[in-house]
Structures are given as C-alpha cells and as structure tokens.
Amino acid sequence: MDPLRYRSACVGALFVAVALAASGARAAEPEPALAATMSCERASEPGRVRCAVEARAAGGRSISWADVAIVELPEFTAALKGRIGPGDATFRDVATQKWAFGLVARKGGEGEARVRVRAVVCEPSAGDAAAPKCQPATVEVRATIHVG
After folding, report:
1. In whole numbers, what is the pLDDT of the chain averaged over residues?
2. What residues pair up with 140 in beta bridges, in sequence order?
C-alpha cells in the first residue's frame, strides 16, 4: 500500500475512533439531579408582577428541602422578598416543588430576572433499612420580565 494512503487511512480511523469515544462519553454523562424553570407574567402597566419557579428532581430522586433566592432583577423592579423558603412553596410532592412570588415594577421596561434554586436531593432508597443518600444541588434559572 502506498505510504501516503496508509497514513491517511490511519488518521481517518483515529478521527472516527475519537469521535465515537467522545459521543459515547456524552451519552454516559449522568442526568442532573435537579432541573428548574421560571416564568413571570407580562404586566400591562407598572405595579405587581407575579413570577413562578418550579423545581423537579430527576431520575426517581426526591427533594427533601428546597428554597429560592433572588439573585438579580432588572433595575426597574424590586423584590418583595429576597428569599422564598421551603414553607412558602405553593405545591410540594416527593419530586417537585413550586413557588410563587411578587415583584414591584416602578416603571415600564423589559429585563431579565435570575434566581437560584437550592435543594437537597435524595437518591431512591435501596430498601427500608437503607438511609437515603442525599446531596445538595443548585440550579440558576432566568425569566424575562415585560412591563408595559
């Protein structure tokens, strides 16, 4: 075989092997323990803006504790509370928690709000005698605020 063709074939085979290994590594990545979403209602005029956050544990996991901390707001808004605690959840089951909170818009505008959901997420227990394995998880989510 021509040395140049042999070298090209080896480089091509190496490229394919690396690509397959990389795609296999991505497929084997563990699913995140916690996912969250946030939405804010559109307000037609300045005043109260209602927002909602939902956190879900993935893969059969459960949430034993969770809260929401407001990290950043547009300059035309102010938070009524900076932290929405576990007791303020509007819905709670084994794997999901939801919160609702209000902002005050002093004037019209559009901007992004950012919150941090903190939770203690537990793996499914192997049996009645086994204590659940729990770990902290944090997710930041964003929503656009429209006023006016």
Report:
1. 84
2. 116
Supply 39's token pair: 């939405």
Ramachandran angles phi, psi of 22, nearest 5°: -65, -40
Helices (H), the chain: 3-27
Segment 71-77 mean pLDDT: 97
* φ/ψ of residue 51, rounded to 5: -125, 155
CA dihedral 67, 73, 76, 81 (to 10 degrees): 20
C-alpha 44/C-alpha 81 separation (Å) is 22
Q: Are residues 25 and 84 in the same domain?
A: no
Can you tell me which residue has the tokens 């559009």?
110
Tell me which DSSP letter residue 136 carries.
E
Are 3 and 71 contained in the same domain?
no
12 lies in the same domain as 63 = no
Q: How far is CA 107 from CA 56, 70, 110, 128, 145, in A?
A: 33, 20, 10, 55, 12
Give residue 8's pLDDT band: very low, low, confident or very high (50, 70, 90).
Answer: very low
Give mean pLDDT, residues 131-137: 88
Total number of domains in the chain: 2
